Amino acid sequence: MLPADVTPQDLASAARNELKTLSKENAEQVARHLAMAARLIDDDPQLAHQHALAASRSAGRIAVVRETVAITAYAIGDFALAVRELRTFRRISGRDDQIALLVDSERGVGRPDRALEVGRAVDRAALPVEVRVELAIAMSGARLDLGENERALQELDIPELDPDRAFSWSPGLFAARAAVLEELGRLDEAAQWQRRAEIAEDVIGSRDADSETLLVEEIEEIEELELDDDADEPPSAPASEPDDAPTTVQDEVDEILADAGIDADGDGDVEPDDADENPSAR
Question: Domain 1-95 class?
Fold first, then answer.
């Protein structure tokens, strides 16, 4: 049953546009099921999956419907179904939006070699930045599955791995690096990257990190970051960074914090200043 308060307008407009090939009545019903799947995915993934399947029974040839079935199948741990639905989604849509989920689903069914093959077949330069980061994390996980821990770390050495700034993808990327470093026995470095992940998560909060960038390291860590050994030296910032982007040099700390809108309270934690948000450097 669909709640009366769920309407087709609850579904994103781009998704509704894909339903225009259906009859009006069918399109509205499918849209409501998809909207319910999106509403429930975090709190009740099993019920979200049932709504996705209901939509699929009425509109199985629509890309967004198969995509939703795949996402909800992954959420409930049905990785075999997720693989099948993601392949169908790619065939219908011609898009690689969910390539990281496909790689991870291949891992879920115990095929890390196949997961790496799928990931390598994609032109990463053509992917949106968030998808590219998610793919790097999934590929790193597949390397860990195979016991290739050093290569798992290499998979995460991407331009988006900037330890000094927080983007929407930063917490997951930092945490993935921490996990690999722990597997390698580099516990001090692992703890440092895990702390960065936690700070990035706190700083971002509910903000849209696609439109802004914030400094994420603790003040006490700034000097330490400059002393990192070459084996774990953070890559250069993306070419799109402005020439006057802030650095982590100790004598520029005050200017950095002011530009980023972050206050320091003496215990090493950083908090965003909502009154002075830092504009995007992307």
Answer: mainly alpha
